[in-house]
Amino acid sequence: MNSLPVQGAQVVSRVAALLRIVGRKPEGSTLVELVRDSGLTRPTVHRLLSSLAAEGLLDHDPGSGNWVLGPEILLMGSVASARFPLEDIARPSLRRLAEETGESAFFSIRRGDETVCLLREEGSFPVRSFVLHEGVRFPLGVASAGTAIMAFLPAEEQAELLAGWAAHAGNFAAAHTECRVRENLETTRQAGYSVNPGLVLEGSWGMGAAVFDQRGRPAWALSLTGIETRFRADRQGRLGQLLMDEAHRISTLLQSTGSGRQA
């Protein structure tokens, strides 16, 4: 009797993990990727995928063989978006940033120990980075948005993440060493904005600024990404100020509308 809730919770956790992995990329994920990234056995993954497909939460693309998000996810997302009018609030800032800088602008949310890219606005500069797109997840402290958010978390939360840094950062740990991350966090706190000098992908730079909720906690972030030559030192100050101005604008709007409660 006592084991049933635990078993049920384990299934929910596994299903949620698979949905997150599939949702990382518009083109979805292969079965091999899902088995590898979830840590589950192939039969377990296949059984869960079949059940999710039967409920319309996932689809199997016959052309690519990938598993992709299904129509029920779209319907649920449409309903949920009414509770979190983030696009209406954040989109004008993204447009201003893209127009002012020519770079691609993004709005990300903190979800647990990760950041998830929610919105993007393409800039006019013809050469751009494709590291970020809607649905992409990074560990906190990785990439410009995650660094901007982590830098303003309470010290004890930062210490907890850094204590198990290699496991937390995963595939990004080699470039994002604990020492380097600590330096980045300190620099971000002092400047008010983060700079990611091609640590996720060589030649692809980013800058970010945290957006705060009603409790004054960093819950979202604005960021800009582009090629290295567009983020030279003599331009970073201006880009950082633009990011902080728009981040402050969104923080104020979220708090005044009551939408600044982190989900």
From TrEMBL:
Gene3D superfamilies: 3.30.450.40, Winged helix-like DNA-binding domain superfamily/Winged helix DNA-binding domain. PANTHER family: HELIX-TURN-HELIX TRANSCRIPTIONAL REGULATOR, ICLR FAMILY, TRANSCRIPTIONAL REGULATORY PROTEIN. Residues 72-256 form the IclR-ED domain. The keyword Iron-sulfur does not apply. Keywords: DNA-binding, Transcription, Transcription regulation. The keyword Hydrolase does not apply. This is IclR family transcriptional regulator. One of its GO terms (biological process) is negative regulation of DNA-templated transcription. SMART domains: HTH_ICLR. It holds the Pfam family HTH_IclR. It comes from the Bacteria. GO terms for molecular function: DNA binding; DNA-binding transcription factor activity.
